[in-house]
Amino acid sequence: MKKIVKNELDELITRYPQLSACKKDIEKAYLLLQKTYDDNGKLLIAGNGGSAADSEHIAGELMKRFKITRPINKDLADKLLKIDPQRGERLVKNLEMPLRAVPLTSHIAITTAYMNDADATGVFAQQLLGFGDAGDVFLAISTSGNSENIISACVVAKAMDIKIIGLTGQRESELSKIADICIQVPETETYKIQELHLPVYHALCLMLESNYYGK
Predict the structure, then answer these.
(1) N or C: the chain end with fewer CB closer than 10 Å?
(2) How far from the centroid of its chain's Cα atoms is residue 95's Cα?
(3) Hey, is 180 helix, strand or coil?
(4) Where are the domains of the chain?
(5) Sheet containing 181-184: which strands, arranged edge to edge?
């Protein structure tokens, strides 16, 4: 792990000492995500309620700059300028390199159609089937670790050779058992679990950005 990446993890533990209990799992999750991006894979994310909002938040931090400038590469820049010099100049200036992340919570037409026509508990499973590829990672967020639509998606992920990172509370759960890596933050009340989920996923986003775009 690069020093600049390790610094982000160390800072997380300094700011939130209680997360030292799951530091090793955060590091394992980061290393899995790094390997996935190295292999041109992507991250798929889902959760319910506040965790659905977290899913959107994570994608927002990864698909564009978080703290570090992410200019596009010269080859793409040259192509854009050749296709349309005027618009290309603006695009080259403003486009930022993404770390591909898909929040499965944001596709209203898909989710409502599937819930109405088939099975409300399979909404994320159906999207994993459509968007996922072997070698991707599914970040499954559930404060209880027992959300039926999340566990159903995990079953599909296993069948498709998609790795699973769980983000839960302290208690053992179905998600902690099925996930390849499970970050179990040391709280048991829903809102307190959610309060610790945010710094964990911010740290993962910062670590990834530092690895690929930091100096």
Answers:
(1) C
(2) 21
(3) coil
(4) 3-63+98-213, 69-97
(5) 101-103, 43-46, 137-141, 163-168, 181-184
Tokens 């600049």 map to which residue? Answer: 4
Sequential pLDDT tens for the chain (215 residues): 899 999 999 999 999 999 999 999 999 999 999 999 999 999 999 999 999 999 999 999 999 999 999 999 999 999 999 999 999 999 999 999 999 999 999 999 999 999 999 999 999 999 999 999 999 999 999 999 999 999 999 999 999 999 999 999 999 999 999 999 999 999 999 999 999 999 999 999 999 999 999 98
Contacts of 166 (CB under 8 A, 6+ apart): 140, 142, 145, 175, 176, 178, 179, 181, 182, 183, 184
Residue whose entry in the numeric block shows the structure tokens 């009340």? 189
Token pair for 118? 């088939």
Q: Which one of 3.30.470.20, 3.30.360.10, 1.10.1740.10, 3.40.50.10490 gives the CATH number of domain 3-63+98-213?
A: 3.40.50.10490
